[in-house]
Structures are given as structure tokens and as C-alpha cells.
Amino acid sequence: MINRYYLSGAIIALLAINSISTSASEVLYKKNCASCHAESRIGAMGPALLPDSLARLDKKLADDVILNGRVATRMPAFKEALNAQEIASIIEFIYQAPEVMPSLTDADIMASRKDLGDRSLDSNSPKFDADPWNLFLVVETGDHHVTLLDGDKFEPITRFKSHFALHGGPKFTQDGRFVYFASRDGWVSKYDIYNMQYVAEIRTGINTRNVAVSDNGEYVAVANYWPRTLVILDGKDLSLIKTIPVASLEGKSSRLSAVYHARQRKSFVVALKDVPELWEVPYGPAIKNPPKKSNQQGSKNNTKNLFTPIHINTGVVLDDFFFSSDYTKVIGATRPLGSGTKGDIKNGLVIDLDLKRKIAELDLPGMPHLGSGIIWNHKGRQVLATPNFRSAEISVIDMKSWETIKRIKTEGPGFFMRSHENTSYAWSDVFFGPNKDKVHIIDKQTLEIVKTLQPEPGKTAAHLEFTKDGRYTLMSIMEDDGAIIVYDAETFEEVKRIPMKRPVGKYNIYNKTHLSAGTSH
Ligand code: DHE
Predict the structure, then answer these.
(1) Domain final position from 38, 65, 94
(2) Domain extent at residue 90
(3) Which among 376, 382, 412, 511 is least surrounded, fewest beta carbons within 10 Å?
(4) pTM, entire model
(5) Residue 162 has pLDDT above 80, yes or no
(6) From the CA of 473, how far away is ligand 1's center (Å)?
(7) How far apart are CA 149 and CA 168, in angstroms?
């Protein structure tokens, strides 16, 4: 009742907002919000309140958060302290860009770094009784926590607080002991899974996309929207090694969409959001045919080209990437640039990182979500399957001829698709539209949907991940009062339901560190 009354009040208030001047809005912001979100709005205990950071939050929701507070966070309710017009005025203020965008200097970054936890109690083996390879980390954005889940018993081992709004997959060291998280607000944290405690944290950006980590955790690369930087950290304690400003060869600055780790090449591959370039940033001498033994690492002393970006002209802006198994080919989804056109170029490109040029175009409809693509063997050849953000279909592409061999019709556009080497099926959600509560199961040989699950009508069922052996599939009910549902991957029967608070992604340590073709890395 209060809400309905208030909302109509807020709409009237928004119409009358011109009567509150910008400086008065700023005064209101400083009085009520700055202590947690910082005067510069870059965030402190609370998240950043800048237009880019708020892009995913509808103004009506922002209004509700200020009025009623945010459950399971320290955001209080302001319904007693502020009237509708004042709240509307603060909303107008925070959704406008400041005259000068706040910056984050190297000194600021270094000053934000903290060692965490008590190292004196550290052990080199897990302090829990579970297979350390068959663990899942479940990111719960409902109350900003992470659950460490035993992948055999499907029981939580521990649950710990994360920074606000983690995004992108957590990245593991190859031994499976440490994991790195990135929050949309620019915080990077390192967590010791064996000892179940954080190691360190640092703020490297104001608006961050994701992190990539070299195999043994030597280096962490962070991709930012703002400031426009690629940040390189020492993976041991997260201290700052280098900040690389992002600009094309012509000097045009760009946001970064994401950064990826190319294990075989000892490099980070970087997606630029505003210019038609792709970067490869070496962190060690590239190895074309990687040795079988992991002790043959590149020498750290050969620092000549270390962290110097190699610019590859892509001719068109690419967003959202997928890699061939040997990481020599990057498959990117094309996005319109500036004028909104991209000429005759199709929706996907294949770039050869050795040749440093495009070698094929892909016939993909709508807006493919290549980041969620997976690979499997289909009748003796490798195929790539990708869901689509706009089109109700999954494209299956031959990775030799780069031709589309099948367009599997689905009940709506999907977000995440997953499989495993030991299963005959691939699972894909229907994330967008009225069928967001459904998940398709596809036979990897017939390329037909064999079953559609609808675990909780009306609730978003999304993001899949398999156990180490591929016997079970874990699915999220992505709601505040959500759950992880465990399915038998062969019979598709539900095995267990574990309550969770908006579990977004779940990540199996073995599958991620062993680069399973059925999941992202
Ligand atoms: Fe993500 C991964 C980009 C919106 C949940 N998302 C990624 C990655 C990129 C990306 C580039 C790969 C990075 C990595 O894993 O290191 N995501 C984008 C977007 O551009 C988009 C569409 C809009 C945006 O503003 O960021 C977007 N993503 C979302 C969501 O709305 C999701 C569903 C919920 C959320 O919390 O933001 C979401 N994204 C995820 C998840 C992964 C991810 C769970 C990791 C998937 C995995 O299994 O590895």
C-alpha cells in the first residue's frame, strides 16, 4: 500500500523535479548518501553511483531501494528521512554524469590493497573433508555471498561474504587452491579455498568487467570500462604491477569488454569495446606447441615484450569471445560501431592470433552469445554451439569449414549453455522472455532437443555446470529465494535442491582448471 501510494507520489515528484536545483540535489546526496557511496560517487562501503555503474538498475528500482533499503546489505530505508520529491531529486542526480568523471590513479589503487586473513594457520591441504577437485563455488548475488559446495554430497562446506555484485566467472589457479573474483565496482579479491579465508583485495577500477588469471596465479589482468585501463596485478598478493591505458593504434581511447587467459600462448587476450581492435598481451614467451610437463615455463627474465599489447586490426568492433581449444583462433561477435552499421560483415568473425587477421566470417543470427559457447565432437568433427541473446535458436558451427550445420529452434533466446566430455547432452537455458523458466536438453549427435525442463514455473532457471565426472548437472533458480537444483545428467531426474539466494553462476574447479570443452574458462 505504502509503495503504491509512494510510487504515484514519486511520479508527481519526478514531474516537479525541475524545482530542485542540481546543487540542491547534490546537497541532498552529500547529506544522505556520500558517507557510504563517497562524495565523488565512486563507491566506498556502498557501490558506485555513476551512470555507467547504474546502467543495469531501472530508475523505478533505484527509487524502491532508496525508499525501502536493500535486503541483506547495509543500505537503509530512507522512507522516514526523505520525501518523494527529495528521493526523485537524488535519483536524477546520480543518473547524471558528473562534470568531471572521477579517476583512480595508481596511488589510489595501491592504497586500496589489503592483506586479509591469518596466514599463520594456513595449511597446504584442504581443511575440509571433500574432493578438492569436485568443489563448486556458487556466486549468490541475492545477498552477495559465495558458497563453497561439496560436488559429491551436494552440501555447503562454507559460505562467505563477497564484494557487491560479482560478475564474470571466478578464476582459479591451476592447482585449484586459489580463486580470484571481480566485482562490477572494481574490487578484485583473492580467496584461499583450502584454508577458507581471503588472502587479499584491491580496487582496480570504478566500473570493471572481469579478470583473467595466469595458470599458476602469477598474474591477474583486470578489464575496466572506467577508467579505460587494463590493470596487471601480481597474483600472489594483488599488488599493482602495471596500469595500461586503453587506446587504439590511432590513439582513440576505448572501454574494455573483457579479458581472457590464453594458457598455451602465455598471454591475455583483450576485447576492446569502442574500437575495431583486439589485443594480445604477452606475460611470458609464447609457446606454440606447449610442452607436456608444466615445469617448462617461459623465463620470467625475458621481459622484453612483457605486457606490451599487440594490436590486431579486426575491421569491426568485436564483443563477446570464444576460443578454439588450442587458443590460436578467436571467434568474436560483431557489434555495430558509431553509425550503428558494420557494413556487409556478418555477425561473427574468426581471427587467427598467429596470422593476426580475420580468416572467416560466421553466419550467425541476431546477437550470438559466444562467451557461453561450447565445443563437442559431432560425427568426427569439432563443432561450436552458441546460444543467442536475440534469436530463439542455438547455432551449431563446424570448426573447420566454419559453416553453420544446424540452427536448433528454442523456446526463446538463451544466455548460458553447458555440457561435459562424459555426457551425450548439452543443456541450454531460455533466459529471456516468457519461457525463462525452461531449460532445453539437446542430444549432441542428433542435434535435437530431447527434453525441456521447467523446474519452477515463472522462476528463472539458468546457468548450468557439471560435476567433475559429468554425472550430474547443477542448475540455478535465479531468484532471491532461489536454489541450486542437482539433476542426474543421464536420466534428467532431480536429485537434490539446495536453497540459495539468487545463485547466478556456479563453477566446478576441476572442469574450469582442466579446460573442459563443455564450459567456459
Ligand atoms: Fe555476464 C560472464 C558480459 C550481463 C552473469 N559476462 C560474462 C563474461 C562477459 C560478460 C564478457 C565473461 C567474463 C568472464 O567470465 O571472465 N554480461 C556481460 C554483458 O555484456 C552483459 C550482457 C551486460 C552487462 O552489463 O554486463 C552481461 N551477466 C549479465 C547478467 O545480467 C548476468 C546474468 C547476471 C549478473 O550478475 O550480472 C550475468 N556473466 C554472468 C555469469 C558469467 C558471466 C554468471 C560467468 C559465466 C561462466 O559460467 O563462466
Answers:
(1) 94
(2) 4-94
(3) 382
(4) 0.89
(5) yes
(6) 20
(7) 19
